[in-house]
Amino acid sequence: MPSAPHATVPVLGDMNTVPGLFVRACIEHPEKSLGKYVYVATYYLSFPEMLKVWGEVLGRKTVYVEVSTESMKNLYGEGGLETALQCRLGETILAITSKEGLGTAEELGLQDLIRFRARLSF
Q: What angle do CA 30, 31, 37 make, to 5 degrees?
């Protein structure tokens, strides 16, 4: 992956359920969400952590390998570059999402939503 192993990725969980729970929580608790951008992520994982869980769920051996942004572009063209840039965002995402005035899952009482492992175990 084109991302440092320490980088984190915001994880939403079940796309069929979780966004609606965020909307409901914002409507039911406007005092917690009014005037804020609500960051729709329930927790953060690194790519190596996600790969480990994926391997455990599927019974496969996994190894995380970091590749350069340039390698992704060379291999996959502009789509590879776009993917690499999105993956690199995880290297700074916690600094962005910790800003004042940004609503979180915890503030809305949604921190216990479906976890990554459960979503892979369907």
A: 70
